Amino acid sequence: MSAAAVHSLWTTAADPISKIETPKIEYGQLSPTLIVIGGALIGVLIEAFVPRKSRYYAQAFLSAVTLAAAFAAVVALAAGGYGTTKAHIAAMGAIAVDGPSLFLQGTILLAGLLGVFTFAERHLDPLAHGNRVDSFAAQAASVPGSDSEKAAVKAGFTTTEAFPLLLFAVSGMLVFPSANDLLTLFVALEVFSLPLYLLCALARRKRLMSQEAAVKYFLLGAFASAFTLFGIALLYGYAGSVSYATIAQVVDGTVTNVDPALAGTMGNDALLLIGAAMVVMGLLFKVGAVPFHMWTPDVYQGAPTPVTGFMAAATKVAAFGALLRLLYVVLPGMRWDWRPVMWAVAIVTMLGGAIVAITQTDIKRLLAYSSIAHAGFILAGVIATSRDGVSSVLFYLAAYSFVTIGAFAVVTLVRDAGGEATHLSKWAGLGRRSPLVAAVFAVFLLAFAGIPLTSGFAGKFAVFKAAAEGGAMPLVVIGVISSAIAAFFYIRVIVLMFFSEPHPEGPTVAVPSALTTTAIAVGVAVTLVLGVAPQYFLDLASQAGVFVR
Amino acid sequence: MSFPLLTATVVLPAVGAIATAAVPAAQRTAAKWLALVVSLATLVLAALVVVRFEPGGSRYQLTESHAWIKDFGVRYELGVDGIAVALLALTALLIPFVILAGWHDADTLETGSRRWRPTQGFFALILAVEAMVILSFEATDVFLFYIFFEAMLIPMYFLIGGFGDRAHEHGEKVASTQRSYAAVKFLLYNLVGGLIMLAAVIGLYVQAGTFSLPEIVQARANGSLHMATGTERWLFLGFFFAFAVKAPLWPVHTWLPNAMGEATAPVAVLITAVVDKVGTFAMLRFCLQLFPEASKWATPVILVLALISIVYGALLAVGQRDIKRLVAYASISHFGFIIMGIFAMTSQGQSGATLYMVNHGISTAALMLVAGFLISRRGSRLIADYGGVQKVAPVLAGTFLIGGLATLSLPGLAPFVSEFLVLVGTFARHPVIGIIATFGIVLAALYTLVLYQRTMTGPVKPEVAEMPDLRVREVLVVAPLIVLLIFLGVYPKPVADIVNPAVKQTMSDVHQTDPKPEVEAAK
């Protein structure tokens, strides 16, 4: 009797280990995200081990290089055909590598890169005890107004943690629009939200306001996350899976093998409707659509302006990407259910954002409401449910993010003794005092208003055209009406800057370093190029307009 | 490929605008000269267009076509017909005078700062407006037209809001408030019009799948593009609303008196003689050709609105205390005539309307620019502040009179021909409307002559006793315009020859033929 046979007398062989599938991870295709996470982790190590004096330079350099490298990886993937012919689902079904993913990841990375530039700006604030300082608190943990805060300022501390936090946020944002199952979606949501909550609280000036903004953002964001998670649970109950593809099949009725554990609930439409509504609600919160927009003005106003600019641009891109994928990949089978709801949301978002913005007196709040109105315009493109709809939304998001970052970067320049002078009355006569800065801001405002020859017009035209072709002409009409309302307050700012008498003790325009200048210059250049010759980028967006299933 | 002449007429002022804006602060006189030279060079190019254009030739001439934004179906397509050539020439002709008349308009804003360069800005903006207006006359692609139709609002807005009269009866603070109010009103009215048009432009694309005007017109003519009646009417209304705001037509005219009242005289000329013409021009080119059936459907209402504009504008002009606002209301009345001529749907009416656009441009420019010279001398826009000017400044008063007489369509001056044609053309189809419109002429005589009487005749007011007469620069501005008014009043054939074939073509696009004269029908 052989040893093995003897052995089998009193033992049974367990399933060979090879039966448990080894996860197959396509590292190359996930490289953009991995590079950013790696950069963020190194950033944490820098915080721990590099002397305080050198941290700022190390962090700023590392962040910029990381984002640039990740962008290069995205370009390499896109050039390798992963956006079109080789689009597929990677990482065991968790991540979709396809056109929309790569396009949005590229946009987020560029927005993040410009964000790093504005984060790293140290020429705007006056020297604090001989040290150059950026927009972030000297020491976030010290109580505002306390002795420890004073000591931190005196010692010339800076919160260089902002850079790794930004990288972590970007890594979450990269995964968010490419998540291909609901759990990945949720993890990505948390990964990018938590650093943003922290970043919002880090303002160097008006710290209480900044902390208040962070708390509001966190509480409401936590609510939204809870909604999303509950919705995910319900959808799992409905489909027996968190995978996008499987849920879509169950929605379409092509899956018949019922999971015995879920026999009681599977295929129950109530679960689908409620679950989908809750997940979509969570995404609409991140997008800032009415009625889930309440956090936007407070957070935009309270957060340090570079953070606001980065967040306004990149969060919107990521969240709309995730929304598109959810609606187009998972829920196309129930578009007759979600389209009327989204119609309503788009209408109230466009009108609500535009109308409320009229009464604003703070430039950051004004831009916040304007971002709400823009979310409405983008939703009009989402509703189109066509390939043109996808590509128009992609184009709009790219155009919008550069305008936004540029506009907020300009806001950081206009300062008085209390820091940034964000009250609109202080902007009076800026055009006389600093014609160039005012002219640049006017370009951004005109782009927001959708005046032809700016990227804003091309984007608006693209989404409205897609919506009209998708049969949503009334939405287009409401869209142009709210554009007209929105134009009113953009124009009002221009009037204020150019035609009002300058206030004698008005704010001064700080001379920025090359960093902020680059961010603003890129913003202006992209705004004009996408306005005058958008064809190449429309092609790009239209090639990228197909989701992998 | 032949030389892209039409593109050149746009690129030259556009490049000139950038170059002017880039002139350093210290060389502001050089900026003025640069702008003037560019505008004159553009005039030369426009003259070349007129020469190369063959009135009896194909529908659109000197055409250019390049791909632009493929995804939107947009092409860079240019081409001119007779109507466009006439207005192109008018624009190119008026801009040098506008620049020359506004020679010192920005001087008071100079602060000596190295970064603040209002003079450069003023002239660059004028050239930018010229480039955009010319392109919108030349565009045969609906989208291309739309872009510049909208974009020209921005430089106009800065011209209105940024530069005002040198003196103001209520002081600079009130003036700047009123100016920015006027600028915002101008922009909002036109932007709302434009955005509504945007919805219609998108709707048109959804229907037609192209933006090319000739292609759409052809497709509609041979039946390959069918639009439901309701759709066509909605799209027509979307387009017409934008053009009616721009033109402006009662009841969306209220921005014009503010804008013209607050802007400097040259900018006011730019508004009424150049930019507003795009509105009436576009009615002819886009509304009628793209939506012939809907145009006919809307004609009765539009004629009544035009009639209201004529009479209402004239009545309000009679009651004005402010010289510039008076000219503005007179213009509203005249735009009523133009729109009436377009929608009378007779070839006389439409030829008259096109001639009217040209003549109104020249006559208003003459009147308004002289009024501007007058206002700059006294520092007041109120009619009551003047009196007896003809005794101290006879040349100024004389040119003012000729401009005024042209505005009231005195026979022998250019506007008479066009007004007569419009009335005849309207009468042939809508006698009652034609008759009522005639009262507009009577009222025009009233407001013009009363204006002249109150400002120029009577005892010399002490404030105007020292008023200098026109300077050489000012005479250079006014004299050529007056010569043109007289020349075209006596011999309108050159313009009429260019315009008439295009009008015939437009009429046939709308499937309209002139009504037969009654006498002939009775035989």
TrEMBL record, chain A:
Record membrane topology: Multi-pass membrane protein
TM segment ranges: 30-49, 61-82, 102-120, 155-176, 182-203, 215-239, 270-295, 307-328, 340-359, 366-387, 393-414, 435-455, 475-499, 511-533
InterPro entries: NADH-Q_OxRdtase_suN/2, ND/Mrp_TM
Keywords, alphabetical: Cell membrane, Membrane, NAD, Quinone, Translocase, Transmembrane, Transmembrane helix, Transport
The keyword Disulfide bond is annotated on this UniProt entry: no
Compartments it resides in: Cell membrane; Endomembrane system; Membrane
Superkingdom of this protein's organism: Bacteria
Main location group: membrane
Domain NADH:quinone oxidoreductase/Mrp antiporter transmembrane: 179-485
The keyword RNA-binding is assigned to this record: no
UniProt family annotation: Belongs to the complex I subunit 2 family.
Self-association and partners: NDH-1 is composed of 14 different subunits. Subunits NuoA, H, J, K, L, M, N constitute the membrane sector of the complex.
Protein name in the entry: NADH-quinone oxidoreductase subunit N
